[in-house]
Amino acid sequence: MQFQGALSALVTPFKNGEVDEEAYREFIEWQIEEGIDGVVPCGTTGESATMSHEEHGRVISICVDQVKGRVPVLAGAGSNNTREAIQLTKFAKDAGADGALLITPYYNKPTPSGLVAHFQAIADEVSMPFVIYNVPGRTGLNVQPQTLLDIKKAVPDVIGIKEATGNIRQVSEMLELCADGDCFCMLSGDDFTVLPLLAVGGCGVISVVSNIMPGEMSAMCKAFEDGDMRKAQELHYQMAPLSRAMFCESNPIPVKTALSMMKRMPEEFRLPLVPMLPEHKAELRVLLEKNNLL
């Protein structure tokens, strides 16, 4: 399977309002050295919502160039505007990404047939592996299992989904309908549910916490694959407190703050995101120290 194990939803470093290319390349290199199984530039965690199209294409290109084929690159390319999603997906393909992560249209709240038409329109213009991103907490729309099956039948380029509902029953129903041998990739979009998702047939995670613990998240997925459930459970519970901390404020505020504390990148956000509250920052530092990350 092309996308499996632990993929990091990469944080994008900024410096003086611009993409910090040097820090980004060093960060990607560290992720690979630590054993990450894949990377996802320009996702929610990468603050893609505040990037220009030019920046979007450049960040994907930097990522692909730095990775140099060592791990898969699944580039964020979705939008609630189908024309814009086509353009961003073209950027991803032209940059050499291995696939495109396509969020369901937010705010518009399309019908199931509108969802099918949206992904079909993208595939008509750009052919490459697509992973749908289902995150109702941000989009206001939940892809139902039958709708996912309809999309999969209509759009062969759709090879998987990033499921961020935290609903294992829904994940199980999706796999029941859509899994065809090993041909459909179910990726967790929620660090709390990676292990249970793997247990029902998932293939991995697009993770936030792996930005700071890439080796541990990759090791947990590998332990499960190897049948070492005890080790997988130990790693799950080791990461759990930091996984919770990553969402004490809006993502990616906590994870970028943590990476700044770890001297991996500047603590700089783009509005409307702002720095963490001091009390949350103090709690985060304690957790990082406890895990020997500082």
From TrEMBL:
Database matches in InterPro entries: Aldolase_TIM, DapA, DapA-like, Schiff_base-form_aldolases_AS, Schiff_base-form_aldolases_CS
Reactions that this protein is recorded to catalyse: L-aspartate 4-semialdehyde + pyruvate = (2S,4S)-4-hydroxy-2,3,4,5-tetrahydrodipicolinate + H2O + H(+)
Pfam families xref list: DHDPS
Active site: Y133, K162
Any Gene Ontology biological process: lysine biosynthetic process via diaminopimelate
Site (L-lysine inhibitor binding): A49, N80, E84, Y106
Keyword terms, alphabetized: Amino-acid biosynthesis, Cytoplasm, Diaminopimelate biosynthesis, Lyase, Lysine biosynthesis, Schiff base
Location of the protein in the cell: Cytoplasm
CDD domains, A to Z: DHDPS
GO cellular component, one term: cytosol
E.C. designation(s): 4.3.3.7
Site (Part of a proton relay during catalysis) residue list: T44, Y107
Function as written in the Swiss-Prot or TrEMBL entry: Catalyzes the condensation of (S)-aspartate-beta-semialdehyde [(S)-ASA] and pyruvate to 4-hydroxy-tetrahydrodipicolinate (HTPA).
Quaternary structure (record): Homotetramer; dimer of dimers.
NCBIfam families cross-referenced by the UniProt entry: dapA
Entry similarity comment: Belongs to the DapA family.
Protein name: 4-hydroxy-tetrahydrodipicolinate synthase
The organism of origin for this protein: Desulfobaculum bizertense DSM 18034
